Every structure is written in C-alpha cells, then in structure tokens.
Amino acid sequence: MRNATNMDQGTGRGTRSTMGLRLREYARLMRLDRPIGIWLLLWPVLWALWVSADGHPDERLFVIFVIGTFVMRSAGCVMNDFADREFDPHVRRTADRPLAKQSVSTAEALGLFAVLALVALALVIPLNRPTQVLALIGGVLAVTYPFLKRFFSLPQAYLGAAFGWSVPMAFAAQSGSVPPIAWVMFLSVVCWTTAYDTMYAMVDRDDDLVIGIRSSAILFGRADRLIIGALQAGALCALALVGLMAALGRWYWAGLAVAGALAIRQQVLIRARDPAQCFRAFLNNNLFGLVVFAGILLHYLFAG
C-alpha cells in the first residue's frame, strides 16, 4: 500500500514538474525572461498617453494600453519565433530558443499565439471605434513583420511602424481623433526603432549573411553608423517638434538633452561594430525612452 501511495505521489510530482517545465518554455517563447522589448514598446505608449491627455491620462485607458503592450509584445515574439524556426538553430544568439531546439512544438506555439490574440481582442472591445480600427491595422503590422525578413531589406523600419502604431491608437482612444502631433510622434518612434533595431541586427549580421536573412545592418553596410546617427537625429528632431507643438517646458527639454547624450553614447559603443558592444548600445535605448518619458511626466507634474 505504501508503495502504491509513493508511486501516486511520485506521479503527481512528475506531472507538476512537467507542467512547470512547459510553462517555463512558454514564458521563454513569449520572451518574458527578456523584458527589454516590453519596455521599448511601452515607452512610446506612455509618451502618447500623457501628451494626448495633457498629463492626465484616463486610468482605464492606462491599464488597457499597458496590459495590451505586454500581450502584443508576447504575441509578436511567439509569431517571430514561429516564422524563424528554420533559421534560429543556425544563429548563435537564437539557437536556444524553444522552437529552435524543439522544446515547444509549432502547434503549441500557434495555440499560445491564438490565446494571446484573443486577450488582445478582449482589450480592444471597450475602446472607441477609431481605436479599434487602428488596433486592427496594428495587429496586421505585428503579425506580418516576422515574415518580411525573407524578401524585404529594411524590416527594421517596418518594425518601427509596428512599434509606433500605439501612438495614434493612444491619441484616438483619448480624444477620438488622431491630430498632427500624433503623427509627428509616430515618426519619431519609427526613426528611433529603426536605429536601435539596426544596432540589434548588427549583432547577427555575419550569421544573417550566411543563412539569407535580410536586415538594415546588411543593407546599410559600412554606412551603418552614419545612417543610425541620421535616424537618431531624426527621432530627436521629431521629438523636439512634439515639444513645441505641445508647449512642453524645460523638464521635457532637459530629458531630450539627456536622450541626445545617450544617442552619442550609443554611437561610441557601436564604433568598432563589435557584436557585444552593439548589443549594449541596443539595450541602452531603454534609458533613451525612459528619460523622454521622465521629461514629459515632470513637465506635467510641475506645470499642472
């Protein structure tokens, strides 16, 4: 009898252990162990929510957009790994991903994506019609991006559009329309994202050349640093125009000045095109997004 009980307990522990392993692999597939992507996607959302509401965003919208950022980034990672499942095993940085090492099946990945998509849909339902229409376009951008690397040489710019699409969505959710300032901010996000994702692509450039993946790092070649600098300048100029259009004060401009210094720091990091340093430069963009938001937040805190 004791043996039977021990076997039942052992089976129960084994089942829980197996379930725990599955959940950990699903979490890795959603890239929850690497939250940098969530932050890079969240900062423009926060910029737009605060500017569109003159510093007082609707609490319900704040919760919806923050959760939506988390869900859409997770869904995008799942679809990205599904699209790259034949390529990732041949790239040093991605060879350990769940689909690449087959610790998660393609059916499981698609099922997880479906669940995340349903959650995203549920979040959109309470929003107004203009935001729902924009959300549909944003969903298409997010789902199609991973497949562009087969034939489009500038997928980083497309990712910029996907990441920046939350900006017009936030303005539409707050006011029911998308004013010109929203598109200026959207342009700044496209430039910024293209710049930092090119730094990211510089990490894998040698592997991508071998397996035939397209990227801006490959397209730009030896002009990569110059073009990244131009994109960073474009992002900062667009954000400066946002500041003028929204009549933001000295706290915002101080934040923008720090962001400019961080952009220069990133140029220093990528100067030798060393993969590890390029990755550090990519990660540094989390601070870029943070200081811009800090400037916005402090402006409304002290101006109000």
Please explain how this structure is put together:
By secondary structure, this protein is mainly alpha-helical. The protein has one domain (33-299): Tetracycline Repressor, domain 2 (Orthogonal Bundle), CATH 1.10.357.140. Helix content is 78%, strand content 0%. The protein has helices at 2-29, 36-52, 59-83, 106-124, 129-148, 155-164, 166-175, 180-203, 205-211, 216-220, 224-245, 250-269, 275-303. Helix 2 (36-52) runs antiparallel to helix 8 (180-203), helix 5 (129-148) runs antiparallel to helix 6 and helix 11 (224-245) packs antiparallel against helix 12. The longest helix has 29 residues, at 275-303. The mean pLDDT is 92.
Which SSEs are present, and which pair or pack?
Blueprint: H1 2-29, H2 36-52, H3 59-83, H4 106-124, H5 129-148, H6 155-164, H7 166-175, H8 180-203, H9 205-211, H10 216-220, H11 224-245, H12 250-269, H13 275-303
Helix pairs in contact: 2-3, 2-7, 2-8, 2-13, 3-4, 3-5, 5-6, 5-7, 6-8, 7-8, 8-11, 8-13, 11-12, 12-13
User: Cα distance, first to last residue?
Assistant: 73 Å
Q: Please, what is the average pLDDT?
A: 92
Secondary structure tally, helices: 13
Main beta-sheet strand count, sense and barrel state: none
CATH topology: Tetracycline Repressor, domain 2
Low-pLDDT ranges:
none
